[in-house]
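haha ok so turns out i had the wrong file open the whole time. this is the CORRECT one, sorry everyone. sequence first:
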Amino acid sequence: MKMISIKKSDWTKAMEKAGESYILSGPVKDQQGHTFKELAKGDVPDLDYKETSLSAKTLVFPQSEVMFTYSLDETKEGHHVLNETPFADTPRAAVGIRPYDAKAIYILKKNFDTADYKDPYFLRRFEKLTLVGLAENNPSSLNFSTSCETGPFDETYLDIMLVDTGDEYLGKILTEKGEAFANAAGFTEADESLSSKIDELKKEAEAKIKSKVSFDNIEKMTELDLYNAPFWKDIAFSCINCGTCTYACPTCWCFDIQDEVKGKDGLRMKNWDSCMAKTYSVHTTGHDPRHDSWQKTRNRFMHKLKYYLDKYEDGIMCVGCGRCVSQCPANVDIRRVCETMNNYQPAE
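then structure:
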């Protein structure tokens, strides 16, 4: 592990230098606060932010991505042939990503990179991406990331971790990818003894997280115990199935593939989908096994807190960012749902 430092007064210059070798992404200010997105040349990640409305998962799993283009005009050469959309082979860097959002990208990878199926659209983005994390010194009251086997200073899934210490950012280079980015940005090597300062800030940040969830009993129960539990209609009573939670969530991975044609020009697109959407589970016969809205709510929480837990034996499908809680218009709170599920005592 190598320690680095960068004065805030030199931040813009360092990012401009890194931008010569990398396609940069990071938090930028907008009308709603901050959003995480790919930056135009000359733009600089704004690290003076609290949270972003959407996570950095858009860098590996875009909201909408054109996979192929084609022509239906039989007078043109190559008509009715799918042409793959070019992809820039330039290295990419997510600068300022929160440590728990970095874990979310690795949760997505469990779905898109399996022994049987590998999604080339996800993997080509993932393989080119360097994760330059920014530790969160002052987690929000909705943050429960430490309950989800991560946290505001979690280094596990990062290539570099930066820590705001006032006038400068201290950092740790954690991987070879991180080393390459640090060299490209011209970060200065720092004394390794400064890691103790980061340790102190980590303890302070984690102590500020008062929100907790437990899923030890969920793990012990069978899927049918929870699926048939009597509380689902009560949990879903206020839910309007708007899907905001699924779009804000950094670990939701549902998508749909659609063809769009205008005149004789067409394209095939991969778009985010939502299990809360009305048509999501409708079969081609017209039958919908989750016809009632509360059944859609049950499926979402069973997937996050039970199905994933059982399948991967690696915790719940949640990193505790709190976005779904803060953005839900009906005040549905995943922490309370998790508590209800965990405290449930199925009949003998």
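Residues 104 and 251 are 5 Å apart (CA to CA).
again sry for the mixup
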